[in-house]
Each structure stands twice: as C-alpha cells, then as structure tokens.
UniProtKB/TrEMBL annotation:
GO BP terms, alphabetized: fatty acid biosynthetic process
UniProt source species: Austrofundulus limnaeus
Pathway entry: Lipid metabolism; fatty acid biosynthesis
Gene Ontology molecular function: oxidoreductase activity, acting on the CH-OH group of donors, NAD or NADP as acceptor; quinone binding
Protein's UniProt name: 3-ketoacyl-[acyl-carrier-protein] reductase beta subunit
Annotated keywords: Fatty acid biosynthesis, Fatty acid metabolism, Lipid biosynthesis, Lipid metabolism, Oxidoreductase
Residue span, Ketoreductase domain: 3-180
Gene3D superfamilies tied to this protein: NAD(P)-binding Rossmann-like Domain (3.40.50.720)
Keyword check for Zinc: no
Gene this protein is translated from: cbr4
Pfam families per the UniProt record, alphabetical: adh_short_C2
Residues annotated as transmembrane: none
Family: Belongs to the short-chain dehydrogenases/reductases (SDR) family.
Length: 238
C-alpha cells in the first residue's frame, strides 16, 4: 500500500510543489486547504484516482479534528504530514491590527499544533512516519516589519523541537524547514530585483527547490528535531 501523505496548504505555492513531488514518489496524497475548489484543482493536476482533497481551515479546532478523523476513516493511516498552510500580514507592530495578530497566530502556529495533534495517533500505526513544518528564516533571525509573522515562525521552531522529543520513542520524526524568499503568491508583491541584492545566491528560490528539501527531511530516517534552512544563503547575511 503506498504511503499516505497529508499536505496542509497543498493547493498553492510550496505545498502544491510538495504534493506534486510526493505523488511522483508514489505517495497517495491528501491535499488540505481552506478553499475546497482550489484543493480539488490541485489534486486533479496530480492525475491519480487515489488522491483526495479536503476543505479545512487549520485554525479551527473542530474543523481540524473532524477533517483528520474523516481522512483516517476514508484514506487510512497517515505516514507523512507537511504543514505548509500559512498567511502573512507584513506590518510594523504599531500598525498591526490585533485581529491580524490573532489570525496569524491561529493559522501559522495554532494551526500546525492542531494538525499535528490530530494526525499523531494515526501516525503511530505507520512505519517511518514523519512531520515537516514550514517555518521561515525570519523566525530564526527576526525581521523589522514582520514582528508577528516571525513570532509565529519562531514558535514553530520550539514546537517542532519539543514534539520531536515527545514522539521520537514512537519512531515519528518532526523537522522544520525554514525557507527564505520563494516565488509564490505570498511573495508576488515583492520585486525580486530589489531583494535579490541581499541574497548571496542573488535570486528567489522556487517551490520545487523547497519541495526537494521537504522530501529529504521526510525520507531521512535518522534526522529529527532539526531546522533546515533553504534560503539561498540569506540567513548568513541577516
Ligand atoms: P501561498 O500563499 O502560495 O499558499 C498558502 C497555502 O496555505 C494555500 O494552499 C492556502 O490555501 C493555504 N492556507 C492558508 N491559510 C489556511 C488555513 N487557515 N487553513 C488551511 N489552509 C490555509 O504561500 P507559500 O506557498 O508561499 O507559503 C507556504 C508556507 O511557507 C507558509 O507557511 C509560509 O509562511 C511559508 N514561507 C513562505 C515563504 C515564501 O517566500 N513564499 C518564505 C518563508 C516561509 P487556501 O487559501 O485555499 O486556504
């Protein structure tokens, strides 16, 4: 039976590239995103009757629980969980609305905690189960204008390392991947030529480059509790 991989935020950007690569590797995919039509469109591109799409807002406690119960009941036990669902609202702290703080925390940090919690029991039943959470280089280094966003990503680092310790004895691995600037909808408003000067490799990365690193972490059977930075060297000069 092929491995079952759940990719939250798999309808676009980094999550979509991860879904594509995992499908090419022979996994059965469950693509999760808020908009069910977008998740279904992403699954249609994977060309396989075995793949499924689910509409779920990862920031909503009951929705996550119900979705993962349905996934386990209808698709089986989960081998891989990738948490790529995320939002940004870049602003200086003084200009950040409290409701935006709540939304960022609920989607980027709480959402990841909820999906991990909902998936873990199912993952106990599979060999070589692994989680990859998508953080950010700004969660490691901080960034002016991204105070709240970077805090959610820094929180993911502590969460990932702690969960890795909690579940290592059950042979479930948990790692964090921290991208720099990647070409997706999230960075569509940024001018690459302005930013590239500050990146040692002098360009944005692609979702496919991030996906390959996610795959490495999912398949690296002796790596857990680690942060892998995929940023063209940006962290070196931040
Ligand atoms: P995109 O905006 O391209 O895609 C975001 C994905 O998350 C979509 O599939 C979206 O689907 C889903 N999503 C957003 N909110 C929710 C929610 N509440 N519940 C379920 N799904 C949700 O972003 P990227 O691919 O660029 O980003 C992926 C991850 O990588 C994010 O965590 C981001 O913070 C992180 N990252 C990105 C960087 C970049 O430069 N692009 C750099 C560093 C980190 P839908 O709208 O249908 O819900």
């Amino acid at each position: 039976m092929p491995r079952l991989a759940v990719v939250c935020g798999g309808s676009r950007g980094i999550g979509k590239a991860v879904s594509r690569l995992l499908a090419e590797r022979g996994c059965r995919l469950v693509v999760v995103s808020r908009r069910g039509d977008a998740a279904r469109a992403a699954v249609a591109e994977l060309h396989g009757a075995e793949h499924q799409a689910f509409s779920c807002d990862v920031s909503r406690v009951e929705e996550v629980q119900e979705t993962f119960e349905t996934i386990q009941r209808t698709c089986g036990n989960i081998s891989y969980l990738v948490n790529a669902a995320g939002v940004n609202r870049d602003a200086l702290l003084l200009r950040t609305k409290p409701e935006d703080m709540v939304s960022l925390l609920h989607t980027n940090l709480l959402g990841c905690m909820l999906t991990c919690r909902a998936a873990l029991r199912s993952m106990l039943h599979t060999q070589g189960a692994a989680v990859v959470n998508i953080g950010s280089v700004v969660g490691l280094k901080g960034n002016s204008g991204q105070t709240v966003y970077s805090s959610t990503k820094a929180g993911l680092e502590g969460f990932t390392r702690s969960l890795a310790k909690e579940v290592a004895s059950r042979n479930i691995r948990v790692n964090l991947l921290a991208p720099g600037f990647i070409h997706t909808d999230m960075t569509a408003g940024l001018r690459e030529e302005d930013r590239a000067r500050s990146i040692p490799l002098a360009r944005f990365g692609t979702s496919e480059e991030v996906a390959r690193a996610v795959l490495f972490l999912l398949e690296s059977s002796y790596v857990t509790g680690q942060v892998l930075v995929v940023d063209g060297g940006l962290q070196l000069v931040m």
